[in-house]
Amino acid sequence: MRPILVRVIRVLDWPTYDGWLWIDGYQLAANGDAVARRSLFVMPAGLIWPDPPAPADRRSTKHTPVKRGPVRVG
To answer: Running DSSP on this structure, what letter comes out for residue 43?
Structure first.
């Protein structure tokens, strides 16, 4: 068996054994692209949750004001 990385979409409300649950998600390739949709029957205690990614460095959305006024054309 080989572990897979899955992006969880939702936890399904399907009947299960105590301590288990169904999840819906996308299996991810090494580069992070979704390659297959999966419904998985899992025991949450056996899942390994990766650290959330650091927030992207966002550039300022402030714009330099444009000079406005009369313009001579021609």
So the answer is: -
